[in-house]
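re: that complex we talked abt at group meeting.

here r the seqs, copy pasted straight from the sheet so there may be weird spacing, ignore it
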Amino acid sequence: MALPVSPPPDPDQDAALASRGAGDGLAEGTTNVPASTSLIAEDLASPTPQHSGAVARPAAASRRRLTMRKAAPYLFISPFFILFLVFGLFPLLFSIYVSFFQWDAATGLGGMEWVGIDNYAFVLMQDDWFHKSLYNTAWMGIAGGLPQHLVALPLAFFLHTAFGRWRNTFVGIYFLPFITSTVAISLVFTSLFSREFGVVNAMLGALLHLENIDWWQPQYSKTMISFVVWWRYVGFNTVLYLSAIQTIPRDLFEAAIMDGASRWQQFRHITLPMLKPMIYFAVTLTIIGSLQLFEEPFVLTAASAGDGRMSGSGGIDQAGKSAAMHVFTTGFGENDFGTASAVAWILFMIIALMTMLNNRLLGRDTEGR
Amino acid sequence: MSTVAHRRFSLDNLLAYAIVGAGSLIMLIPFYFMFIFATHTDREIMSVPPPLLPGDAFLMNLEILLTRIPHFWKNVGWSVYIALMTTALNLFFCSLAGYAFAMYEFRYKKQLFALVMGTMLLPAFVTMIPTVLVMSWLGWLNEPRALYIPAACTALGVFLMRQYIGSAIPRELVEAARMDGCSEFGIFWRIVLPLTGPALGTLGLITFIASWNNFLGPLIVLSDMEKFTIPLALRSLQGTGQTPWGAICAGAAIAVLPLLLIFSVASRRLIDGLTAGAVKS
Amino acid sequence: MKHMLRPTRPWQVLRPLTGLLAVLAIQGASAQTTITVASFPDFDRAVKAAIPLYKKKNPNVEIKLVSLSYGDHHNAMTTALATGANLPDVMAVDFGFIGKFAESGGLEDLNKAPYSGAQYRSKFTRFSYPQATNSKGALAAIPADIGPGTLFYRADMLEKAGVTQAELTKSWDSYIESGKKIKAATGAYLIPSAVDIKDIYIRSGLKDGDGIYFNKAGKAQVNTPRFQRAFELAKATRAAGLDANINAWSNEWTEAYKREKFATQAFGAWFAGHLNNWLNTEGKGKWRSSQLPEGAFASWGGSFYAIPTKAKNKTAAWDFIRFMTLDKEMQLEAFRKLDAFPALLEAQTDPFIDQPIEYLGNQPARKLWKDAADRIAAITVDKYDIVAKEIVDSELDNVLMKNKDIKQALADAQAQIEKRVRRR
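got the structure back, here u go
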């Protein structure tokens, strides 16, 4: 939707599809009671309602009730679709339309000028800033995303095997960053990463005897942003993995322990293989989330915004500018709504492509199960 | 729990505790410093080493915050208002739609539900540009409703409610009410809704938090400082070279505190809700 | 005499009357008029200072000030111009954005009636009007303050290093040489960032009608000796370790000022206000101002007021703008309060200009700035100035950090600008 209230990595398409089976099963299991319901469902197109006729009622009233009953679900789900139409689908279609125009929106709708695929050609072939932002996005996606899983997997395993009563407390601690206001905490991080007086540099200096790092220099800013991203989402992934580990039959572990398997062997030979579907799912969420990365870099890089620069340009040398930020600056900074829309659509296509690719690579093994 | 968890106190376990413990410190440190800095003057914050214990400058920081963001309490008010409106609308519309998807058989149900779920995949930035235009055509720019109406019925909410209603409410109950002559909406309102308490609670909390934290939405539709939500108001302190750190941390603490409170009483429910589908798969 | 008795055209008789009607109309309308002024820090302080004074004259006009941070303000105004919604009546525009906004077509042409801004042209600093005039000759905004470029330096540090002002400013090379002595003697950096030297250098040595990045025909002027030298100077500064590599307006920058780590800063005259008000309040008496090295004169910054075409209260807005820009007292007030150097000539000749500035060790620096203002070329601005700046800064970064060849960097910058500026 246009302005989603749902949290960044939306949980979750696949799970919905997976659980749909269960829901339908339930519906089928209970069809003996509302026999008429399924009849009606089949006959929706036919104008004459079928009488279930267990209780005798005046025909007109009964018909009205049946019409109501047929209309009700559509009525009940209509708010979602009306909102989606106005604030989701229409903007979506309009942005496709706009992407084929040169349009300085200050001139009003009449100022639109058809340019064909010119915007797309520019963005793909010429727009160095977009390419840079894409590179940044990939960089930060890998540096911020991969460690999420590398840490979350063993973490979930530890939490499962070594923590009893305290497990929920620690799960809560790791999950806390996920529900926290990105802006508020990014602002706090801005001070923690400060060159001269930041806690991060103080710690690095004490532990590794490093010189104070200026985290807003182009060679460091992506690392800083990636860390904050990692910090925000590692707990979310831990919870995903933990819940999946909890569904692994206990006797598998018990049998392994009987055989004298070490904890590493349990992790390697039981947990990891059993978690494959969840890894696929969680990685998919991370990929989608990373490609949409906006808030963390937007707020963190604003700290180094200098004189005469637009908001969202990603700091020095645009080193911290994500692709979604490039959509923002092209649209609201440069005022070029046509090109901005083209950028958005190209980015959208990349997300779809990456999701498909991930599906091919990781999903193949999963489907067999 | 199991024999696995109850293994003897071993070196292995010790290592696990150490790693998990160190990790949780990393998770908590930013919050810790947020609260500590909120009680120190900028000078103290910028000293080396930074202050590690609470100071006494919180009220002063609050005062700076209120001078730099003159409408701060109003901003808090808008955030609360928008979050409450979004939550109320979601509770109603999502449970209504969830109920329809869970309890009715109708044509194109599967396809429509797949469409609902599909909308979750739509990245916000794709519609960012036209959304501003739509809002300006509707005359909703700088209006809170530009935030709570588009978000009044979210796919995640519909999904959560469908899951819950489908599994927790017996169809016989709905049928019986229908036999008694209860209207379709009446069934929902009087029979189903009262039984969805736990799910409504979860959905309410998730929606409230998401709205409270929302940044991109307000960023593109609000430009009047008086109508800013807290995240926007806090961010406006940035980039001038005179960032008041103590005040920012005080503001951030005020923005985060409600979330911490909610989380401390309902963490299990929130975690389950936010990872709902995944847990069930 | 003659023409008074026998007007050539009948409507000329009515002219005073229409004027009266207009006044009545303004006052009638202003019975419940609220005008919205959108501005940004620190420039918004001029409006804050003006509100009570303006209300004294116009008790029926409410002024609502909407102030966002520099970047956000200009982003918000861009969006507002694009959507036509949430437009203020009076829009403050910084020099950095004036080119882009002037070309947007969303601002009133103040040369046209009823504003007839052209009549005030001679009242303002020579170079200020051309900055606000777009390629079609429309006057998009009225200048409020200007930024005569000047070099601020720490007298105490120079003394300690045995460097005289003449030595410091003789040439850019002697400036850098002096920097080495200062660094050795005091440990202070010559300048926060080498980028600052590039920025002031590319603004100097321009002729009337030139632009910083583009010529009048809109052709990028980046691969030129001016940029070449600017990049060389920046590189030499960095190589000698004379800059702290800190971006202006960042938090590190502020902190470093508070800790007195910089010996000089080339900026607009308005910077004295920033130093005095918050950056280095404790440095009172230690700072001085001089002309730029090598006898250069450059305009750095400046602010304007514009009226959006879709504004609701244009008449009242225009009245307020005239108050802010044409009223000598108001201009002096801003001069006093935030060292915003007045664009209004009348204010520049006020005795106030000769008064010593306590912060600058009682130096009567305003005279110096006035002198600079008189000699700054009337440069033009371009819609794509911001884009060009972004690209040039990036390339300079490549030169400074990755040791990229300057010639190559400038050629690349030129090519990149031409690529991005694809639609004129």
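couple things i noticed - The longest strand of chain C covers residues 142-154. Residues 315 and 404 of chain C are 53 Å apart (CA to CA).
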